[in-house]
Predict the 3D structure of the following.
Amino acid sequence: MKYVTEFRSGALAQKLAREIAALVEPGREVKIMEVCGGHTHAIYKHGVEDLVPAEVDFVHGPGCPVCVIPMGRVDDAIALAERPEVVFTTFGDMMRVPGARGSLLEAKARGADVRMVYSPLDALELARRTPDRQIVFFGIGFETTAPATAITLLRARADGIRNFSVFCNHVTIAPPLRAILDSPGLRLDAFIAPGHVSTVIGTRVYDFIVEEYAKPVVVTAFEPLDILQAVVMTLRQLREGRCEVENQYTRVVRRDGNPRALAALEETMELRETFEWRGLGWIERSALRLRHELADWDAERRFELPGRRIADPKACQCGEVLIGAIKPWECRVFGTACTPERPIGTCMVSSEGACAAYYNYGRLARRRERVPV
Amino acid sequence: MSLDLDHCITCGDSAELAIVVAVGEADATVELAGRREQVAVELVAPVSVGDRLLCHAGIALEKVAL
């Protein structure tokens, strides 16, 4: 397939694997956090882990928006969906995420009008077509997804569509990284930063990681060769004693991101003082809400929400998985009580979650068989 | 970018490479993994037929230089 096959060449992968093997110091472990769930998924789907020496340890980060949504917010979404006047629209990934009162899918089975959409613009179109119903869109995602919500809000305002609103849970990528870097006892050597978030926010956002924490960062795309090349770039920085924000994804990402996307976000949303992240707790200025000027389209202002804080199930160790403190298979319920069919934690629900990636690609234990390079 | 269909859309890293086949006012028709769909192009305008766009959740996020 054009523009995909080129980034999945086995011969080039072997060449990069040999470069990686030559850059590794035998016996010295290098811990690289891939921030994004998309990278975690790609690493296991394509067997990237088996192409690198044992000294390279991929630590899976918090960059899966489905995984970090706290149960209380899912319950708020269900409360909205159960209102008789509401049609609750959501990306399909959120349908199975459990709150304390079950999932949106279960609410739909009980009679709530929950509909899956591909884009918030589809939800806006639904609002145009059904003026007698309140259409609420579940706004979830990092800065990659937030611009779609922003564009939709601007169109709703421009067209005067009043029966549309957003339940905004958009989050930002930099604050949780700082929270992880401030975690006591967590040892990381470098970061592979998310490519598509960086398309919007640019690479300069990560400057604090090199300046304040002295960790190399490589912004990276999602094909297996991209990830292998990012490992080469990371190991070269470490070997040469450099500490920089490097951009592997030059075909899309720029240092300043997409200024028009940032302007759309600025016009429609502002930082919340604080927001709860599953596994990471409350992080200041880490999530977005609608600006006062968009109050008419803000579901949190339009409807009363329970707003209760729900503790995660005791057996679930998603929190430790999300900060890279344990591998998914080290969780006490991984693959037994918690499976993709009957998930307890969000890391198993989301197809980008680290637990789902491990489970789906057979990484059920520590044992690894590497590909000879 | 990825053309895999088993990614999580919420994540944004399911963003897909699409090629513009027709240009409208605020939207463009793109061909994306063998199907055609409308995407909003406010963030990357102006676009022309043949441009390659990184698309996610119904909008184009960036032009792609390949």
About this structure: The interface with chain A takes residues 1-4, 6-15, 17, 26, 40, 42-44, 52, 54, 56-59, 61-62, 64-66 of chain B (CB under 8 Å). The two ends of chain B are 12 Å apart (CA to CA). The first strand of chain B starts at residue 16 and ends at 23. Residues 9-63 of chain B form a domain with the SH3 type barrels. fold (CATH 2.30.30.140).
